[in-house]
Amino acid sequence: MRGKTMVAKIAKQEITLNLPRRPTTVERYLKIVKFALGRNRDVEAVAKHFGCSPATVLNAIRAFGVTYDQVRRRRTLPQLKIAEEYIKLERRLSERDQKIVEMYNSPEAPTLEQIGRAFGLTRQRVHQILKKAKALGVKLVERKTPPEGHWIERCQLCKRILQLQQEEPLLTRRQIAARLNAPIWVVHWHLNRLKARGLVERHFGYFRSERLIQAIKLYNSDPAVSAWKLGRMLGYKNLPGIFCELEKRGLGYLLRPRSRRMAGRRRAAQSGTVIDAKQAFRKRRAGK
Which of 97, 99, 127 is closest to 112 using CA atoms? Predict the structure, then answer.
C-alpha cells in the first residue's frame, strides 16, 4: 500500500504508521478504526456498516500499525492523535496554493487554464486546489455568467465596447478589459455575442500580441519600410509569413496594399503566372 510512512514513539516503542497520501482516505480510515475500537464485531460487520470490502477494513487497521485483535481489545489508540495532526497539516494550504487563490481572486479574473500555465499545472488540478481551499473556509470570488438572453441594445458594457471599437479598432482583449475596467472573461462573453450579431468587426479583440498590432500599424503608416525590415526592428524572424497567415485567415484587409507594381507581382506570384528568368531567356532563344 503506497502512502506516507511515519515512525512514532509511543510508550517507549517505535510504531510504524503507513498512512495514505490523501487526507480524505486517512479520515475514512480513522472512522473505521474508531468504529471498531472496543467492539466485539467481525470484519464483515464493520465492512457492511461502511459499505466497503473487508480488505479495506484490514488495510485501514494495518495503516496504524496494529492488528484487528488489538483494536477489538482496546478502547483508545495513541496513533489516532498522530493521524489527526497529520490531517491538519495536510489540510493547510501551501505557499503555491495561496498564490493560486490570490490569482483567482484578482480583479483580472484569469481562467483556470491561465492559472495552470502560470504554475505549470493542469486546469483540473487548479480546480481541485480551489475546491480544497473552499472546503477549508477560504473565500473565493463568485463568478456569475451573464444571462443567455441579455438585451444587447440595453447592455451598458456592449455600448462601451462598440464605442471603443470606433475609437481604436486594433486592441487585444486584455487591453479592452483594462479600458473598460472589467474582467477578461466578461469581455470575452460580450464580444462573442456582438460578433454573432455582426455588430463588431472580426479583428476587434482577435489578437493576443500587442507587438503584432504595433507591427500592423507601422506597416500601414510607413510604406517605404518592408515587412522584413520591420520584422527585424520588432524582433520577428518571419513577419512576412505572419502577414501571409493573416491573409489566409481572412484578415488581409488590415494590411494596407503597397504600390501597384508590388501588388501586381504579388498577385502574379499567387496565381502562378510568374516565369523564371532562365525559362524566359530559353524561350526567346528558341524562338529566334
Answer: 127
Whole-angstrom distance, CA of residue 48 vs CA of residue 54: 8
> Using an 8 Å Cβ cutoff, are 237 and 224 in contact?
no
Which residues does 31 contact at the CB level (< 8 Å), separation at least 6?
Answer: 50
Rounded to whole angstroms, the Cα distance separating 185 from 189 reads 6
Please say whether the beta carbons of 109 and 115 come within 8 A: no
Contact 98, 130 (CB under 8 A): no
User: What predicted TM-score, i.e. pTM, was given to this entire model?
Assistant: 0.43
pLDDT band at 49 (very low <50, low <70, confident <90, very high): confident
Give per-residue pLDDT as tens, 112-171: 888 898 899 998 999 988 888 887 778 887 765 555 556 777 788 888 898 898 888 888
Asked whether residue 21 is assigned to any structural domain, the reply reads yes
Question: Within a domain: residue 141?
Answer: no
Residue 105 lies inside a defined structural domain of this protein:
yes
Angle ∠(138,139,145) on CA atoms, nearest 5: 135
Residue pair 160/176 in contact by the 8 Å Cβ criterion: no
Same structural domain, 183 and 123:
no
SS3 145: coil
Total domain count, the chain: 5
* Residue corresponding to grid cell 501588388: 263
The pLDDT of residue 232 is 86
Which residues, including other chains, have CB under 8 Å from residue 104's CB and lie 6 or more apart? 110, 115, 130, 140, 141
249 and 273 share one domain: no
DSSP-derived 3-state class of residue 18: strand
Name the residue range of residue 125's domain.
Answer: 95-135
